[in-house]
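Sterol carrier family protein: structure, please.
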Amino acid sequence: MPPRRRVDPAEVRAAVLAVSDWLVDPTVPTPGRAALADAVRRSARTLEQLAPGNSVEVRVPPFVAVQCIEGPRHTRGTPPNVVEMAPRTWLLLVTGVLTYDDALAAGLMDASGHRAALIADLLPLNPIGPPGDRE
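Here you go.
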């Protein structure tokens, strides 16, 4: 498989900002599937590029699964270190609206394996501020 094209930070920022009102206010209508998928995929691939490796798999069904963080590589079956969550939870983590520990404590994501928590050190990927501060 050929390597993926590098993720453009400006494109990631635009994709995340396109859904940011919904992230900070759950009463705002859910963004369209295309906008949501774009924000999830671009931000997950950013994580993959920031921390290349194969020891942790981050799953955000139905949109993306990426492997990241250097360490022991798995070759078959379910990897030992998996973090899985809904798209909204992922984007809340990406933007810093929610922390990894708070998401885990609230049952908003599943994390297995001793290396799974290493993604917490990489978040947020694309912090957002109050509506007036967003570009």
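Notes: The mean pLDDT is 90.
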